[in-house]
């Protein structure tokens, strides 16, 4: 059931339940549970009344849980009479079983009043009884609806945890790997024509896909990965250009795509017209969001295919091979389930097939046999996967070029592969724990100084994007004296773009200024330390924002 439809249904159910609760509270206090008529038997017999004359001797009686009213008529007009009783159990239990025997009404109505005897003439349930019956029926239906929904969600969660399914029902398209360089991955059902051409996935392809991702065919993506897709913030807002990022391992992919979205919106997607004002990023419409996402994804895939081809993984309702005992079924890889539900995974599959398995094996070296690393129960992206999205080549390291020799000058059995070209989007890395252990990798100039002033930042294993609207920042050294950088972390808590002013010549900041007791993060904010890996010794002004990370 779609999320919006579900919200509407549950809102209506909630309003009905609230209205029913009020109705029950009112109905309980009324005397209109049971109504009936009583016959003045003695008076009718005295005058031998029949037909219309008999109506003069028929009175009314009504009662509820706590009180009632009787109107006696013995030929001389009605005389109202109020009485109190505690007949809740009688009304709810005895009356339901004895209404035809008239015992309940007789207990209330038949008592001696002089020489006149009153007899129950007719009785039936009154409106309060039916109101409460209706209210309880509505509550019962609401309970069934909620229970059914919980069972469906529970069944869906179990399917996801056990066999990897998690796609919502909707329009399915046929699975294929198509040579097609336009990808719209806004989460929505997508129908693909067979005329595009493509090939169904085979057992060999699926096995190689698993091995290049996890190192074996027995690992599958967990729930955090399966629920990840590309979702924008509200259009025409301070973050209308921004994607919401997950907290798991998929956030690295989302933020790498985010960097390319900013590249498209500011520098490459306006027919050569650059946007040098941050306000332009605040005025992004839903259509422009979709256009920017499609361009960012397709550019990454095209770059991975060495600007010759790009592959897009589409979904299918059919399995194309029978798994063996050496291949753990997840019911997703075999079908590429649904485009909207697993957007990040489908993009990752498309990226691998665009690069091809053979080229990926050539890119990797002995330090990185596969692209994902298991860490604390989750799979995180290795540097090779980040470099694949940034440069089009899955280089496992961040230094420039390849290393042929070890520290002692001896030839390495297999060269270590680094970054060979400058890309549009750069990369900065700082990790306090790795720094303290002396294992923080030094990022080379190929990644530190990209073609455009946009950087994917790995800050304490959390990914963010730093960027500038001034293209000349990296080509004119005078621009680097005093300039602004903009920071987006991808997390829901951030509600506006953080503006950082960088001063590289005033020397307000010295590394030893914060020596002493206190929280290291407060004295040396990680974001600032990351920026100083590019502009050493720079003073950084947060312009009123409380430093985070």
TrEMBL record:
Catalysed transformations (reactions) = Thiol-dependent hydrolysis of ester, thioester, amide, peptide and isopeptide bonds formed by the C-terminal Gly of ubiquitin (a 76-residue protein attached to proteins as an intracellular targeting signal)
Q: What are its E.C. numbers?
A: 3.4.19.12
Zinc-finger is among the record's keywords: no
Query: Where can this protein be found?
Result: Membrane
Q: Which GO terms describe its molecular function?
A: cysteine-type deubiquitinase activity; K48-linked deubiquitinase activity
List all membrane-crossing ranges. Answer: 128-146
Deubiquitinating enzyme MINDY-3/4 conserved domain segment(s): 210-544
User: Example GO biological process term?
Assistant: protein K48-linked deubiquitination
What is its EC class? hydrolase
Per UniProt, the keywords (alphabetical) are: Hydrolase, Membrane, Protease, Thiol protease, Transmembrane, Transmembrane helix, Ubl conjugation pathway
- SMART domains per UniProt: DUF4205
Region: Disordered, residue numbers: 154-173
**Top-level division of the source organism's lineage:** Eukaryota
Record membrane topology: Multi-pass membrane protein
- Whether Hydrolase counts among this entry's keywords is yes
* Annotated PANTHER family: INACTIVE UBIQUITIN CARBOXYL-TERMINAL HYDROLASE MINDY-4B, UBIQUITIN CARBOXYL-TERMINAL HYDROLASE MINDY-4-RELATED
Q: What does this protein do?
A: Hydrolase that can remove 'Lys-48'-linked conjugated ubiquitin from proteins.
What protein family is recorded? Answer: Belongs to the clarin family. Belongs to the MINDY deubiquitinase family. FAM188 subfamily.
State the name under which the record lists this protein: Ubiquitin carboxyl-terminal hydrolase MINDY
Top-level taxonomy: Eukaryota, Metazoa, Chordata, Craniata, Vertebrata
């Amino acid at each position: 059931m779609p999320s919006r439809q579900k919200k509407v249904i549950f809102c209506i159910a909630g309003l009905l339940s609230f209205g029913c609760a009020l109705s029950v509270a009112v109905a309980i206090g009324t005397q209109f549970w049971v109504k009936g008529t009583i016959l003045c038997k003695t008076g009718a017999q005295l005058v031998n009344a029949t037909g219309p004359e008999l109506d003069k001797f028929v009175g009314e009686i009504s009662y509820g849980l706590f009180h009632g009213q009787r109107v006696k008529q013995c030929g001389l007009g009605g005389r109202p009479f109020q009485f109190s009783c505690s007949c809740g159990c009688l009304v709810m239990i005895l009356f339901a079983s004895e209404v035809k025997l008239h015992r309940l009404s007789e207990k209330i109505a038949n008592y001696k009043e002089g020489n006149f005897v009153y007899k129950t003439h007719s009785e039936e349930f009154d409106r309060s009884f039916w109101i409460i019956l209706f209210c309880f029926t509505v509550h019962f239906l609401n309970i069934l609806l909620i229970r059914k929904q919980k069972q469906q969600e529970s069944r869906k969660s179990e399917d996801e945890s056990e066999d990897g399914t998690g796609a919502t029902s909707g329009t399915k398209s046929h699975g294929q790997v198509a040579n097609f360089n336009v990808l719209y991955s806004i989460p929505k059902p997508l129908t693909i024509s067979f005329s595009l051409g493509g090939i169904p996935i085979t057992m060999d392809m699926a096995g190689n896909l698993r091995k290049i991702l996890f190192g074996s065919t027995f690992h599958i993506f967990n729930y955090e990965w399966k629920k990840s897709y590309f979702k924008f913030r509200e259009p025409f807002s301070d973050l209308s250009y921004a994607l919401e990022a997950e907290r798991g391992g998929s956030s690295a992919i989302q933020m790498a795509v985010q960097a390319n979205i900013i590249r498209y919106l500011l520098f490459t997607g306006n027919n050569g017209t650059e946007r040098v004002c941050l306000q332009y990023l605040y005025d992004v419409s839903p259509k422009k969001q979709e256009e920017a996402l499609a361009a960012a994804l397709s550019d990454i895939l095209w770059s991975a295919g060495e600007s010759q081809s790009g592959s897009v993984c589409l979904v299918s309702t059919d399995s194309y091979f029978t798994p063996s005992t050496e291949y753990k079924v997840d019911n997703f890889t075999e079908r590429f389930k649904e485009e909207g539900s697993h957007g990040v995974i489908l993009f990752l599959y498309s990226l691998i097939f665009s690069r091809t398995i053979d080229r990926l094996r050539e890119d990797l070296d002995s330090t990185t046999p596969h692209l994902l690393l298991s860490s604390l129960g989750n799979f995180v992206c290795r540097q090779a996967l980040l470099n694949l999205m940034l440069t089009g080549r899955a280089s496992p390291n961040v230094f420039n070029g390849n290393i042929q020799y070890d520290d002692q000058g001896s030839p390495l059995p297999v060269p270590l592969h680094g970054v060979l070209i400058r890309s549009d989007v750069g990369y900065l890395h700082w990790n306090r724990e790795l720094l303290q252990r002396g294992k923080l990798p030094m990022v080379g100039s190929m990644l530190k100084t990209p073609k455009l002033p946009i950087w994917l930042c790995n800050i304490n294993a959390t990914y963010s994007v730093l960027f500038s609207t001034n293209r000349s920042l990296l080509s004119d050294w005078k621009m680097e004296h005093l300039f602004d950088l903009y920071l987006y972390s991808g997390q829901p808590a951030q509600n506006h773009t953080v503006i950082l002013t960088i001063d590289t010549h005033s020397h307000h900041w010295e590394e030893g200024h914060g020596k002493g007791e206190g929280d290291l993060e407060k004295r040396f904010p990680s974001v600032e330390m990351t920026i100083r890996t590019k502009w050493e010794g720079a003073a950084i002004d947060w312009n009123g924002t409380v430093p985070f990370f």
